Amino acid sequence: MKTKELFMILTISCFLLTSCGMSPVSGEISDAATTEETVEIAEDEHVSSQEQQSDELAKENVEDTTEETVEETMEDEEPVIISTEFDLQNPVDDESTEQVVYYEIEQEIKTEENDTYSVCTFKIPQLKGDSRIFSLINQDILDHYEKIRKRDEENYLLYAESMSEYDGDLPMEYYDYSYQVTLFSKKYLGLLYTDYICQGGAVHGMPERDFVMYSLKTGERVNAVDLISLSKDEFDTLFREAFKELITANPDEYWESAMETVENYDYYDSGAFYLTQDGIICYFLPYELSYYGMGFVEAAVPYEDLEMDLD
Predict the structure, then answer these.
(1) What CATH number does domain 73-222 carry, 3.30.565.10, 3.30.420.40, 3.40.50.2300, 3.30.565.40?
(2) Is the separation of the CB atoms in 206 and 289 below 8 Å?
(3) CATH code assigned to 229-306
(4) Which of 49, 239, 262, 290 could form an S-S bond across to 267 if both were Cys, CB 3.0 to 4.6 Å?
(5) Tens digits of per-residue pLDDT, 242-289?
(6) In whole angstroms, what is the distance from residue 208 CA to residue 48 CA?
(7) How far is CA 64 from CA 50, 60, 61, 73, in A?
(8) d(Cα 215, Cα 219) in Å, to the nearest integer?
(9) What is the value of pTM for the model shown?
């Protein structure tokens, strides 16, 4: 009986110890497994933390790259080979920015008798540097000036034809086409062209303007209107009020009809505005609001009021 009782006691004890996980052997295995799991979890968390830090660092590097200039990001790309009929020599540094030089070129249009009949003067800007983006923009600028030169030649031929029965020496014609860098940011270049034409011995010529914007990321032209977040009505209202303030401050300098002209003008669709470093400037041509000596009458609205950010 003692043997049986002893056997039963040992059997029950082993069962109880096993079910409770308290045996020395099973207890060691359980502790080891728990320790390994803890280590694996800690390692996974460490790896996850490293991956997160790596992702954040990569994101920062991408953001830093976007702040680089076009010359730095595009320097490895081959530039476009520039082609032009203009004789570009003796570049002059533009005083408004270190990134631009210009060339002054004078062209004479002559009659069949080789007499000078018209003089065209061009001030042609070009971006410094050999990046592909700058090359694309420079070529587009040169193409633009080629069109202006051909236009002037055609104007001369039409004028000469209209004066074919004129008795005496024909009066000289003068064409002047220049530019102004109004905007040079990390994203955009803005060029304001001024076209001055004086024909037939007039007392003075009439200037016109043409604003052209380029993306410094693609080298392509950008429509300035597409950058304006305001609606047409909101845009027109801002500039209408800006011009009213100008006229109200000095009413004697403007025509009596100036206020009515300002009130009914279509600023948004007119294209008579250009972008600067600080905001947008709308303008009226000479004689539209005042006498010729006033030149272009301008009013500016800052980007903050226009809900625009060009950076």
Answers:
(1) 3.30.565.40
(2) no
(3) 3.90.640.20
(4) 239
(5) 999 999 999 999 999 999 999 999 999 999 999 999 999 999 999 999
(6) 63
(7) 21, 6, 5, 11
(8) 5
(9) 0.73
